[in-house]
Amino acid sequence: LYPLTDAIIHVVRCFENENVTHVDGSVDPVRDKEIIDTELQLKDLETIENRLEKLGKQAKHGNDPKTKKMFDLALSYKNILEQGKSARTLKLSEEDARTAKEFFLLTNKPVLYICNVDEASAKNGNRYVEELKNAVKDEDSELLIIAAATEADIAELETYEDKRMFLDELGLDEPGVNKLIRSAYRLLRLKTFFTTGPDESRAWTFVEGTKAPRAAGIIHTDFERGFIRAEVIKYTDYIKLGSEHACRDAGKIAIEGKEYVVEDGDIMHFRFNV
Predict the structure, then answer these.
(1) Is the dihedral of CA 236, 242, 245, 251 positive or negative?
(2) Comparing C-alpha atoms, which of 185, 183, 201, 203 is closest to residue 193?
(3) Which of 63, 65, 79, 108 has the most Cβ atoms closer than 10 angstroms to its Cβ?
(4) Which residues contact 161 (CB under 8 A, 6 or more apart)?
(5) C-alpha span between 139 and 122 (Å, rounded)
(6) How many CB atoms lie within 10 A of CB 67?
(7) How much of the chain exceeds pLDDT 90, in percent?
(8) Residues 71, 51: Cα–Cα separation, whole Å
(9) Sign for the pseudo-dihedral over CA of 10, 15, 16, 21
(10) Are 123 and 171 in contact (CB under 8 A)?
């Protein structure tokens, strides 16, 4: 389970409601956050101690530079975790950060805090939100304000007009779930490219920095294996001109090769041969 965790979304209670009891008897988002932090840190400390034992044995019987690097990193993480700090607070070079991913530490994952507030606080938050903001100000994390109960009410409305009216009454520009999706994409460095044709248009998710052949492989492995080139239309051009045919006439279709780094919103047609 743990190696498959790419990020942590931490929902924190930031509302008062006498009908919704809290396990600790009071509302304290900073305390709740710290309890979860401690539990994850203890799990990571257990992971690191196990790895240190194995790496120590390997280091005694060999002279592998990577093993030595892993051992030194593990010692650094052990020191940080024993201080009650999360692994992400250890500052590393890009190379060491790539190596450190092999530990699969939970407190090294990017974090998104969601402040679950009441309806009245959905727009501007409240004192509990401010307390949590202050507590995480030095962390490399994001924080969102969402009223979960209100989101549930919005989801039950059938028409866009009804949802829009509900949001206007609350002074909100959009449902919180939209903000959550965008924040999660930023957290995971995810982008979207599109394919379109006479039968359907589809959106495909990829990681920032992905090159064209790899993006083609998201659709089908044969596309990556036999990749020849990609025909690319920029999203803004497509919206402005209205169709692939119009973009072609205007010279707005670029022919890209294997080194092309796909951009968010690209509309792509892949040429391949297997």
Answers:
(1) negative
(2) 203
(3) 108
(4) none
(5) 23
(6) 18
(7) 73
(8) 8
(9) negative
(10) yes
Contact assessment for residue 114 and residue 180, using Cβ atoms and an 8 Å cutoff: yes
Helix (H) or strand (E) segment spanning residue 143: strand 141-146
Measured over all CA atoms, what is the biggest interatomic distance in the chain, rounded to whole angstroms?
A: 70
Whole-angstrom Cα distance, residue 105 to residue 30?
22
Residues 6+ apart with CB under 8 A from 196: 202, 244, 267
Q: pLDDT per residue over 189-229, tens digit each? A: 999 999 988 888 999 999 999 999 999 999 999 999 999 99
Distance CA 266, CA 2 (A): 33
Neighbours of 147 (CB within 10 A): 23
**Single-letter amino acid, residue 176:** G
The token pair at 27 is: 């509302």
pLDDT of residue 103: 93
Is the pLDDT reported for residue 154 higher than 50? Answer: yes
pTM of this prediction?
0.80
First CA to last CA distance, the chain: 36
What kind and span of H or E run contains 217? helix 212-219
Distance CA(50)–CA(47), nearest Å, equals 5
pLDDT at position 1 over 50? no
Give dist(CA 212, CA 228) in Å, integer: 10
Please check whether residue 267 is in contact with residue 193, taking contact to mean a CB–CB distance below 8 angstroms. Answer: yes
147 with 177: CB under 8 angstroms? no
